[in-house]
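User: Hi! I have a protein structure encoded as tokens and I'd like to know what sequence might fold into it. I'm fairly new to this, so please keep things simple.
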């Protein structure tokens, strides 16, 4: 198990370290077509730093597939609705390869306050 302390670190730095660990790039037997058995635990997510104007300006977009079904949400709205855990989870998910192994890898992630 790899533990990452997010206190006083930026969102992107923590997300990239977690994504790298979930991919198994730290291991000598790395293969991109194999899910590593390493679990990643991120702690102190509530004390994560977001620099600049990202609280208001960063947008999360989702689309239902229907006309007029695009919804936008700012970082501040997402964290008030779902917490800082969800923002970090979405950042890590965006850094993982978009293939059949993505969901199996994200299940190895544990995020704690």
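Assistant: Happy to help. Inverse folding works backwards from shape to sequence: for each of the 113 positions I chose a residue that suits the local structure. Here it is:
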């Amino acid at each position: 198990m790899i533990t990452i302390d997010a206190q006083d670190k930026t969102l992107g730095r923590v997300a990239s370290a977690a994504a790298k660990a979930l991919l198994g790039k730290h291991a000598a037997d790395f293969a991109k077509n194999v899910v590593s058995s390493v679990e990643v635990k991120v702690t102190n997510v509530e004390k994560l730093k977001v620099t600049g104007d990202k609280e208001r300006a960063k947008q999360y977009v989702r689309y239902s597939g229907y006309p007029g079904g695009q919804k936008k949400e700012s970082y501040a709205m997402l964290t008030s609705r779902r917490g800082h855990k969800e923002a970090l989870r979405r950042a890590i998910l965006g850094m993982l390869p978009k293939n059949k192994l993505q969901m199996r890898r994200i299940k190895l992630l544990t995020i704690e306050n």
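A useful reference point when you look it over: Residues 11-23 form the longest helix (13 residues). Feel free to ask if any position seems puzzling.
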